[in-house]
């Protein structure tokens, strides 16, 4: 791969993809709406080309993709806009990939799997989503597979990591670093899975370099599971934070949702805090090799350090 286009380049996984690709010597077109964040991401690296654009304008996508080999789709849009805008977004990206004859790697979540009934799941797990957003994700997957574009779909659990500011754990970390009231979403005794964004980027880039990866779905798990209590303990050890980390319950989300549209949309996804979906990565390791799995102790410490440094 000589040159790649990363859509959503200033997001948590998008920025990690840009850095991973550039670290491998690949030229990268970093595409997003915020030019200031793009320039900050590209600072001091001649391999990163900034492209300020709108993914809902197909001409912007076609221009950005004019001389690249691969597209990485890591765009994230607010929940309230999913129903109307996600199909339009996917259609624009697929048409761009088709016109430019490019391979496409899609960053996906676990919503389309629906409930997993407690057992770790592989890629053959039936997709029977019971939520609106899970059904939308399955619709987008179907669009991609029927498009004729060489596409791989990578399922990721919730993220955390440097520049992953719009995630549940990073909100918690930010409050701790500012010595504010910190809150963990869900029962702190339930073990969940989280993915360190640099690990996710490395795994996805490795996948995208293998021709046999296209036309398939892939699970990219985190470094095992961890409880909220264990996360709180690590955070306190690393920062000296001595306040109680409180729990955000489903009823709290429901109440806030009366006034906040985002929280109202989030409510249906709360089940993931009560019935975690855990991914199996056997298929990846069979075909590609060992999954990158940074231990939570190391990943959380590095994330806190990066966040603290960025505030200075």
From TrEMBL:
Question: Record's superkingdom?
Answer: Bacteria
Which InterPro entries does the annotation name?
Epimerase_deHydtase, NAD(P)-bd_dom_sf, NAD(P)-dependent_oxidoreduct
Q: Which Pfam families match?
A: Epimerase (PF01370)
Tell me where in this chain the NAD-dependent epimerase/dehydratase domain is found: 4-220
- According to UniProt, the name of this protein is Nucleoside-diphosphate-sugar epimerase
């Amino acid at each position: 791969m000589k040159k790649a286009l990363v859509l959503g380049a200033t997001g948590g996984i998008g920025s990690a993809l840009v850095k991973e690709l550039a670290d491998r010597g690949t030229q990268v077109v970093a595409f997003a709406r915020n030019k200031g964040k793009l320039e900050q991401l590209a600072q001091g690296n001649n391999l990163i080309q900034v492209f300020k654009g709108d993914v809902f304008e197909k001409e912007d996508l076609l221009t950005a993709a004019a001389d690249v080999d691969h597209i990485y789709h890591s765009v994230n849009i607010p929940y309230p806009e999913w129903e109307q805008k996600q199909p339009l977004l996917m259609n624009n990206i697929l048409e761009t990939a088709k016109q430019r004859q490019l391979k496409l790697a899609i960053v996906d979540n676990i919503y389309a799997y629906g409930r997993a009934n407690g057992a770790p799941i592989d890629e053959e797990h039936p997709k029977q989503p019971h939520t609106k957003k899970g059904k939308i994700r399955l619709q987008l997957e179907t669009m991609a597979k029927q498009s004729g574009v060489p596409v791989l779909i990578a399922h990721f659990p919730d993220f955390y990591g440097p520049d992953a500011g719009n995630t549940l754990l990073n909100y918690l970390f930010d409050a701790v670093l500012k010595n504010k009231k910190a809150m963990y979403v869900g029962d702190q005794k339930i073990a969940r899975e989280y993915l360190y964004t640099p690990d996710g980027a490395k795994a996805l880039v490795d996948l995208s370099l293998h021709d046999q990866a296209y036309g398939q779905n892939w699970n990219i798990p985190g470094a095992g599971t961890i409880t909220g209590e264990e996360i709180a303990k690590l955070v306190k050890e690393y920062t000296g934070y001595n306040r109680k980390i409180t729990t955000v319950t489903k009823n709290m989300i429901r109440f806030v949702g009366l006034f906040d549209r985002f929280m109202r949309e989030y409510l249906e996804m709360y089940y993931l805090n009560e019935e975690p979906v855990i991914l199996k990565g056997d298929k990846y390791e069979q075909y590609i090799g060992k999954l990158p799995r940074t231990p939570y102790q190391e990943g959380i410490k590095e994330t806190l350090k990066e966040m603290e440094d960025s505030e200075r």
